[in-house]
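Note on ligand handling. Small-molecule inputs were canonicalized before submission; formal charges were left as drawn, and no protonation-state enumeration was performed. Where a ligand contained multiple stereocentres, the stereochemistry in the source SMILES was retained. For NAP, this procedure yielded the string shown in the input block below.
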Amino acid sequence: MKTIVITGASRGIGRALAEKFLNEGFFVIGTSRSGEAEYSHENLMFVPLELSQVESRKTCAATIQALDKKINILINNAGIWHPEDEAQTIDVAVLQETLDSNVIGSIDFTEQLLAHNLISEQIINISSRRGSLSFTTTCLYPNYGISKAALNMFTRILAARLAGKVIVSSVHPGYVKTDMNEGEGDITPQEAANDIFALIAKRVESGNFWYKGEIYPW
Ligand SMILES: NC(=O)c1ccc[n+]([C@@H]2O[C@H](COP(=O)([O-])OP(=O)(O)OC[C@H]3O[C@@H](n4cnc5c(N)ncnc54)[C@H](OP(=O)(O)O)[C@@H]3O)[C@@H](O)[C@H]2O)c1
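Structure output:
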């Protein structure tokens, strides 16, 4: 049985991904800040992870390592969009908080799993078109956009480092009806999860940014 780690699997896109991979026969290790979720399955376990806290990242990675399972796939899905990002200006405190979770947190967590040689097949960083230098021509959501652009650079750097071993991709999931958007969006979390599952199954060329199975401009 293959194993996948999905951060932020308690709700939204992460939960839909977890349910999709469970249906496809995977063992799923999900994370949430509390370490709990409102659904269960015999092949699902939850581990607490607060991405902005170094100790939480260390404990979560150590807990996963202690399971002594090879992780086939890691999806760095958990992320925040700070409500004050509506202000369209860069408030350094908001930027710091956004970077702590979306960039430093996801990078450190990934590096800790890699340091123990745990990830064998693919790493997916759930990014956003807001992090695309081509898409972003407005001042909307600057802190979030900067964080996702940085996450995209992590994808490129990691893809080069792990070339021939692990496929590393960034994905824009679409405009998805989740809590982050207060339920607004064009597609359901399940539709986004199906697209991401299909991309993973295709074992695409490493080091690219994807949206609906097509390469998206950085
Ligand atoms: N929705 C969209 O339209 C959209 C578009 C582009 C990109 N994205 C990206 O897709 C990903 C998932 O978004 P979503 O819409 O599903 O969001 P969501 O509904 O707000 O869910 C976020 C998930 O991340 C976890 N989380 C939140 N803050 C965290 C933190 N500081 N540390 C660790 N985990 C944390 C939450 O778990 P708990 O609260 O239970 O801890 C939850 O499981 C994010 O990276 C987001 O930026 C979303």
